[in-house]
Amino acid sequence: MFGMDSFEFNKIAGAVLGSLLFLMGLGIVADIIFSRPATIVAGYALPGAEEAPTAAAPAAAPAEPLPVRLAKADVAKGQAAAKACTSCHAFEKGGANKIGPGLWSVVNQTKGVHEGFKYSAAMQERTAKGEKWTFDALDAFIANPKAYMPGTAMAYAGLKEPERRADILAYLRTLADTPAELPKP
């Protein structure tokens, strides 16, 4: 008969378990050395700032005047484009403030007056001057908030495409009991 005492069995079992433990530890160390941490991005992917054109790239054609772009604007496309803004802004009448103020009836409204929202110092200066959110002002702000209003708390990088901005402005215009008149070309 095969005669193995308990001491021999323990040596064999210890060698097998030790080898398995060594391989598992080696796998953990290899994962630490050769893996990259996962990048987690919360929220919506918003369009970022575009790269500056190189010397070899042709200059972009100048945008059409805003009244012409608004005349061609598509409200449905503007509503779709504004969906990314819903993470920070409410669009419905009487909507609660979020990270940003509600945008119901924003066109031709005095800047920085949405009830219950704490505006940045830069916006409060514009409010004190009585400035309004005209179509031109909204277009410039959506294009590049930090350049239009240095010191604004809005973290959005801006939307460079003039036609998409016009679509959003056409949509914002519809968010009022009495929509603002379109500017004349």
Low-confidence stretches: none
- CA gyration radius, whole angstroms: 29 Å
Helix and strand pattern: HHHHHHH
What is the name of the CATH superfamily of the domain at 66-174?
Cytochrome c-like domain
Number of helix segments? 7
| Helix content, binned percent | 40-55%
Give a verbal description of the structure:
This protein has 185 residues and is mostly helical. The protein has a domain at 66-174: Orthogonal Bundle (Cytochrome Bc1 Complex, Chain D, domain 2). 42% of the residues lie in helices and 0% in strands. The chain is built from seven helices and no strands. The chain has helices spanning 6-34, 66-72, 75-81, 121-129, 135-143, 145-148, 162-174. Helix 2 (66-72) packs across helix 7 (162-174), helix 3 (75-81) packs across helix 7 and helix 5 (135-143) packs across helix 7. The chain is elongated and about 105 Å long.
In brief:
Helix content is 42%, strand content 0%. With 185 residues, the protein is an all-alpha fold.
Question: How do the helices and strands line up, and which of them pair or pack?
Answer:
Blueprint: H1 6-34, H2 66-72, H3 75-81, H4 121-129, H5 135-143, H6 145-148, H7 162-174
Helix pairs in contact: 2-7, 3-7, 5-7
